[in-house]
User: Fold this.
Amino acid sequence: MPSYATTGAAEAVRQAGAVPVFADIDPYSLCLDPVSVAAALTLRTAAVMPVHLFGHRADLAGLKAVAAARGLLVIEYEPLRPVDEDTRRRRENAAYLNARLTGVLTPPMAPELPHSYGSYVVRVPGNGRPDRDAFARALRARRVWCQVPVQTPVHRTAAFRRELWLAETERAADECLALPVDALTTQRELHRVVSACNALGGLLRVAA
Assistant:
């Protein structure tokens, strides 16, 4: 299962009497990476649990192929909801931002893995948390809502601490920032998001 998520999935595994084992994520979808899952399997592995994150569907085909080779179950944690009017509106808002944002890396879209944009998560690339967090503070000063979507990967929390290094998980935790894209976001608010992000010129540097 992924560590880059909320603790809910790990808690569900523990409540079922099993032990959560964490694998890394794909850097584009931010969902469980089949290659990392394959490397994490042991003789005690019972199932693979993908989490569809921020509205992006995990690579179920790839994960099922890995699981089938070992006779394992694939158990989705909270399958994605069907497309509705709110989803269509979020997709329209996301398309507006995708076409206009500069200085941040917008969420990639894969036709075979549709995105419903439950959250619109961009990357602020750089040297880690000071850069992303400085960018976030500057956006809030310009009255743009934003938040860090995953503050701490699950494997680094007190309840599920593991001594392992998940490179893409750590990078996502350092770089990702959620911007407003919900169905109630107005055109004026979207324009403010674009103006604020682009006015910053991308990455903010913090004085040493």
In short: The chain has two domains: 8-74, 85-199. The chain has a mean pLDDT of 90.
